[in-house]
Amino acid sequence: MSNAFHEIQFPPKIAYGASGGPEFSTTVVTSINGFEQRNINWLHGRGKWDVSTGIKNEQDISEVLAFFRAKHGKAYGFRFKDWSDYKAVEQMIGTGDGKEMKFRLCKHYKSGTHEYVRLISKPVAGSLKISVAGNYTLDSTTGIIIFAVPPAAGQEIICDFEFDVPARFDTDQIVVRAAGPGRFVVDSIPITEIRNI
Description:
The chain is mainly beta. It contains two helices and 18 strands. The chain has helices spanning 12-15, 58-70, and strands spanning 5-9, 19-23, 26-30, 36-40, 46-50, 77-80, 87-95, 102-104, 106-111, 114-119, 129-130, 136-139, 144-147, 156-162, 165-169, 176-180, 183-186, 190-193. It has a six-stranded mixed sheet with strand order 1-6-15-18-5-2, with no helix packed on it. A three-stranded antiparallel sheet has the order 7-14-11, with no helix packed on it. The chain has a three-stranded antiparallel sheet with strand order 8-13-12, with no helix packed on it. A hairpin with a 4-residue loop joins strand 12 (136-139) and strand 13 (144-147).
C-alpha cells in the first residue's frame, strides 16, 4: 500500500486546458410532501479535473504518458496547478499572541456573511509575501510557516501566495487512440485532489 507523494508539478501547460473544479458530497432526502433535508457528508470539498482536454499535440501526450507511468497510475500523489484557483491575496492566516510561532496557510472564500476556509498544504516556493517583519521559514510541502520570533500579541498575519493542489490520477489506465499521423485522442484522464490535512 502506498500513500507516497512526489513533490513535482503536473505539466502546467497541459493543466491549463483541464476541465473541472471543486466537488462536495451532499445527501438530499426528500419527504413525501416534497420538503428536503440536506446532509453535508464532507466538511471540505475536493477538486476533480479531466486533463485530457489540455492535450494539444503529440508532445503533450508523450509528456502525460511519461508522468502517468512515473506515478504508477493512482499510486503516487503529485502537485497540480488548478488555473482557476491558484492564488491567495491578502489572506489573514492568524493573529499573534506573543507565543505561537507556527501558522498554517489558508484561503478564505466569502459569500455574504458565509465563509469557507481552505487549508493550504502545497504553497509554491518563493511566492509568499507576508505582512509580519522578521525571519521565518515556510515548509512548501506542508504549508506551515515558522517564525524565528513569535508575532506580537494582536498582530494580524496577512499573506499573499500561490499554491498547488495535492492530487493523484483517478485511473490506472490511459486509453489513447491514434487519429492520424501525429494526432492522438484521449477521452478522459481524471485527476482528483488528495485530502492530506
